[in-house]
Design goal:
Largest sheet: 8 strands, mixed
Number of helices: 10
Helix content: 10-25%
Order of helices and strands: HHHEEEHEHHEEHEHEHHEEEEEEEEEEE
Strand content: 25-35%
Structural class: alpha+beta
Length: 483
């Protein structure tokens, strides 16, 4: 979020010359609420239940942005190598998911660089619902809460929309803005590039700026407006009692859309303003302390994010998107068990495993049957893997990956993770276990993997040991149930 409030009298010039061709659990409002909800965009069909957005997946994007900053001078400021790498990361994921993606060069920005615009196929071109967040940060640090949280929240929502592939009643457009921190320049350039007809197509613009503050509140831009209704309905259903985003007025990318007559709203969790005693009483956190104590500082890293606040924002975006733009049709769920040979009893197919990993050795008993996957247990420096390519069906209501895991170890430390098992779906790390997690018997582990619906990804178990003292990671009865 930009540091100073813009004057309300700033004039907006709209040019007609340039056309941009866009390349926690879900809680749904009661039927009574849904019927009486005032909507800024006419919705004549009942929206489908919105998907649960995996906060772990959003956090994985934050980790990528933090790494990008670390590898590029410590920041992701507009026009910098860190910003360019951030844009490339988002763009690559969107293109792989099937979005039409384009870059718009902001020649009038203080640091000339590109906006990123992405549209999902489907829905009428003259009925656009737009979701935006600024991708840049300040030069002082990696800019994770401000504003990798907004950027990652929209990216994961975009990927889930692509995976679910529902019938669309509106055109959904996502935007990642450059040069926000220097005066909202990227979004201003975009709005100025639209002619009157194009502006009229945008029925609502939703902005997400700092949605994971560690001492955060629950703020909505223009909270009483009809545009804000779906955002507010979701947070109301959680009993959060959201408030107007007073601190953020005129300070983020919704400003120029609003000035152009486009209805706007959005979520925020707060910046340098201080939480009141009344807010702390209803939301938790620390009264008389900043919502974000690392605002525009070097400590704005992945540690500077509340997973709870972030999760509620991500799910609220999904609820609003589904309410506003998703119709009554969706691919039929062809559910059931997706993993092949999850108990390892019928040979190695369709698994690919390091030599000796799939075994009936009596040294480590299977949970059921005779076979299991045994990674580690060598007592020497070694890496072993177990993988399976998995096609996750679209259109299902739930997706649960589970497996049973037994860990035993000869390590004697109670504090150092010498040996590790990493579990991944695609490029996302679901969990990491170590010798510190050793325990008698098998324990079932489970994960919500709805974010991979409609995709073919690799499920991967990777075991690594150091030079001495074995740790065994024994996996059995792997399942991915879609229903």
């Amino acid at each position: 979020m930009r540091g100073r409030t813009l004057s309300a009298g700033v004039a907006l010039a709209v040019f007609a010359g340039m056309t941009v061709t866009p390349a926690a659990q879900p809680v749904v409002a009661s039927p009574t609420t849904a019927r009486t909800l005032a909507r800024p965009i006419a919705a004549t069909v009942a929206a489908l239940a919105a998907p649960d957005i995996s906060v772990s997946n959003v956090q994985a994007h934050l980790t990528q942005f933090n790494t990008i900053a670390t590898n590029n001078g410590g920041n992701r400021r507009a026009g910098s190598a860190g910003y360019t790498a951030s844009l490339t990361y988002v763009k690559t994921r969107l293109q792989a998911a099937g979005y039409t993606v384009s870059e718009q060069y902001c020649s009038s920005c203080r640091y000339p660089s590109n906006n990123l615009i992405a549209e999902w196929p489907g829905g009428p071109a003259d009925q656009v619902v737009m979701f935006g967040a600024h991708l840049d940060g300040v030069s002082a640090g990696p800019g994770i809460n401000d504003n990798a949280t907004g950027s990652a929240t929209l990216l994961e929502n975009a990927l889930v929309l692509a995976a679910q592939n529902p019938t669309m009643t509106k055109k959904v457009r996502f935007a990642w803005w450059t040069d926000e921190e220097q005066g909202l320049n990227g979004s201003r350039f975009y709005v100025n590039s639209l002619n009157t007809t194009q502006r009229g197509y945008i029925k609502g613009y939703y902005n997400f700026d700092m949605v994971g503050s560690v001492n955060g509140g629950y703020f909505i831009n223009r909270v009483t407006s009809t545009t804000a209704a779906p955002l507010k309905a979701y947070w109301d259903s959680l009993g959060l009692q959201p408030e107007e985003n007073v601190e953020g007025q005129g300070r983020s990318d919704d400003y120029y859309f609003q000035q152009a007559g486009i209805p706007t709203s959005g979520y925020a969790a707060g910046a340098s303003a201080r939480k009141t005693s009344a807010q702390a009483a209803k939301w938790g956190g620390t009264a008389n302390s900043a919502y974000d104590p690392c605002y525009h500082r070097s400590c704005d890293t992945t540690a500077n994010v509340s997973a709870t606040v972030l999760n509620r924002a991500a799910d609220g975006v999904a609820y609003a998107l589904w309410q506003l733009a998703v119709g009554g049709g969706t691919p039929t769920c062809t559910g059931g068990q997706v993993i092949g040979n999850g108990g390892f009893e019928t040979g190695s197919t369709p698994w690919t495993a390091s030599s000796g990993v799939i075994t009936n050795s009596s040294s480590q008993p299977a949970r059921t049957g005779s076979y299991k996957a045994w990674l580690g247990g060598n007592g020497t420096t070694r890496t072993e893997s177990l993988t399976q390519s998995v096609t996750v069906p679209a259109g299902c209501a739930s997706y649960t990956l589970s497996f049973w895991l037994h860990i035993d170890t000869a390590e004697t430390t109670g504090s150092t993770a010498y040996d590790r098992l990493t579990v991944q779906m695609g490029s996302t790390t679901l969990a990491t276990y170590s010798n510190l997690n050793a325990a008698a018997g098998y324990t079932q582990r489970g994960f919500n993997v709805a974010g991979f619906a409609g995709q073919t990804v690799t499920l991967r178990f990777t075991g690594t040991e150091d030079s001495s003292l074995q740790t065994s990671f024994v996996v059995d009865d792997v399942a991915l149930q879609a229903s």
